[in-house]
Amino acid sequence: MKLPREFAEPLRRLADGCPLAARVVWHAQTGSTNADVAALAEAGASEGCVIIADEQVAGRGRLGRSWSSPAGSGIYASVLFRPEPGVARLLTIAAGVAIAEAIETVAGIAPVLKWPNDVYLQEGSRPGRKVAGILAEAGGTRERTWVVVGFGINVLPTSFPPDLVARATSLESELGRPVDRGELFAMSLVNLAARYDDLRAGRHRAVVEAWRQRASSTFGRRIEWGEDGASKSGVVRDIDDDGGLMIETAAGSARVVSGEVRWL
Hints:
Layout: H1 5-14, E1 24-27, H2 33-42, E2 50-53, E3 74-81, H3 85-88, H4 91-107, E4 112-114, E5 118-123, E6 126-140, E7 145-154, H5 171-175, H6 181-200, H7 204-214, E8 222-227, E9 230-239, E10 245-249, E11 252-256, E12 261-263
C-alpha cells in the first residue's frame, strides 16, 4: 500500500538520503512487522528494508510477550540489518539510543533507558512509565546472518490493556499536546542509521556511553534474574562495552546478557 502523506512528507523532508528511508513499506494492518521483515530476510532481501504498520494484531515484545498496537495511536516498525557479529550484539543498545534521541528531538522530552530494551519517561529520580520498546530478533546462517530491529512508540492517548495501565503511557498523554507521528518515524530512521554507522565504524564506546547516560537513573537499583535454574539478585552498577548488565551481588560481581530481569 502507498505510504500515507502523514509519513511520506516527513520522510522526504527530514530523511532525504537516509539509507533506511529508501524502501519503506506501509501496512494498514499486519500481524507483526518483525515477522514480516524476518520473512523478507529469509527470502534474501537486502539490508535496509523497513515495514511500518498502522496496527499490529499480533505485535511482539521480548520473551514472547505481546505488544499493544492499536490502530492510529503509535509507531510500529521494523528494520532489516545484515551486520557483522561484533555489530549485531550492540544493535539493541544502539536502537535504544536512537529511539530516545528521536523522541527528544521531535517531542522535546528526554526519555530514559532501562536495560535491555525499554524507553521510559522520567518520574522524579526514577524511570516512570514505558513509552517505547525495542525487539531485536536474529536468524540466517553463519555466512549470511540477519537482525530485525523492531520498535514501537506509544504516541497518541489510547486505552491500554489492564495489565499495562500502570506501566505504560504515551507521549501525548504525558505532554498534553500533539506529537507528529510522521516526524517521529522519520527521525527514528535517521538516528537508527546514524547509530548503526557508529557501530560499523568501530565507535562502539560512543554508543554505549550515550546509552549509559540515559540509563544512569537505573544504576543503583536492585534486580532479580534467573541463572542456571536459580533466582539471583543484586544491585545494578553499569553496563560493559559489550552491552552486558553489570551487577553487584552478595557473592561478588555478575554479568547478565540475556533473559528475564525483574526490577525491584
